[in-house]
Amino acid sequence: MSSAFPPALTRLIKNLGRLPGVGEKTATRMALQILRWPAPQARELAGSIGELHEKIRLCSRCFTFSQEDPCPICSDSRRDSSIICVVEDPGDLLAIEKAGAFRGRYHVLHGVLSPMDGIGPEQLRISPLLERIGREGVEEVVLATSSTVAGEATATYLSDLLQDRGVRTSRIACGIPMGMDLKYADKMTLQRALAARVSCS
Amino acid sequence: MSSAFPPALTRLIKNLGRLPGVGEKTATRMALQILRWPAPQARELAGSIGELHEKIRLCSRCFTFSQEDPCPICSDSRRDSSIICVVEDPGDLLAIEKAGAFRGRYHVLHGVLSPMDGIGPEQLRISPLLERIGREGVEEVVLATSSTVAGEATATYLSDLLQDRGVRTSRIACGIPMGMDLKYADKMTLQRALAARVSCS
């Protein structure tokens, strides 16, 4: 970092550079932009970052980020408690909620199995999932981990684990995304989409 | 924004979305990442944003962002005070400083002429530039505004303005960027590069 910038700006650029996908150039652009904002707007951003860790906890049932415990979804009696959707992280939960296609409850693993990184079943929220299944009268578990290698492996592991626990397990469908031109789909996706073809009648 | 996220997270996502080049998806990814950071790291980012407007002012000579007044460049007696490089904003000053190719002083306009947006000479730091030229014994003014339409217009305006003030004016060279394949250069750049060709002897 050049000394042509004042220390307070250099410090901010360094901190912004820790955000995902933000390099030094982007961080510089952001910092200069924040400096051009009215001071209250900058204070508002600072305040919202500062209060984040204080206000947000993990829901003790589904482990999503929440300000209340249990979270609004877990405490909503209109949600179907017989079906649990297992996701990798709270961002995935949000994506499904936005789609509005699921009315059950969730369970957030906070990661996927990745032995190379030292992440085994103990590092994920798997035992609380098994407890919930026994306690909450769950009938179906939807495995909605990503269709990456690690996500697939995690889904397979959970599916095996749940097999003799008296619950149905299912996996979200893999196929061609809506609106995608077929010629741009990768080979694996095409193979899956063909194998999982659905009768039109 | 979906109600599936706690209000503190939603608030942060909204605030991050005001940064340049950050849409809702990127803001969500950033916010979730900040939540995964250790709390002190998040507080450090919040603190550096919070202190920014308090600590940083404009240098009263060159108008760059600075914690001291005059700024370190204006108060550095080793810098050549006979030559002033005029730039649009402090980010451009930083880029030139990083290149290490200029040992004079700077003057930051804080924008370019843009009549459509209501930005005329009075909105830019042009009168203080004229005062400095008289007061500081300036011999040359390098016009280093961008080679955009507005940047070129501003350079032309300043060049005309300075013509009968006893200073030399120059414009940074326009041409093919280093390392660029000629076939990807745009027409205007090629025309300029050819017109401004330099003898090899």
Total DSSP helices of chain A: 7
Helices and strands of chain A, in order, run as HHHEEEHEHEHEH
The CATH topology name of the largest domain in chain A reads Dna Topoisomerase Vi A Subunit, Chain: A, domain 2
User: What kind of assembly state do the chains in view correspond to?
Assistant: homodimer
CATH hierarchy: architecture of the largest domain in chain A: 3-Layer(aba) Sandwich
Classify the helix fraction of chain A into a percent range. 40-55%
- How much β-strand is present in the residues of chain A? 5-15%
CA-atom Rg of chain A in angstroms: 22 Å
Which parts of chain A are unreliable, with pLDDT below 50 for 5 consecutive residues or more? Answer: none
Strand order of the largest sheet of chain A: 4-3-5-6
In round numbers, the mean pLDDT of chain A is 90
Taking the sheet with the most strands of chain A, its summary is: 4 strands, parallel
Count of separate structural domains of chain A: 2
Question: How many β-strands of chain A, per DSSP?
Answer: 6
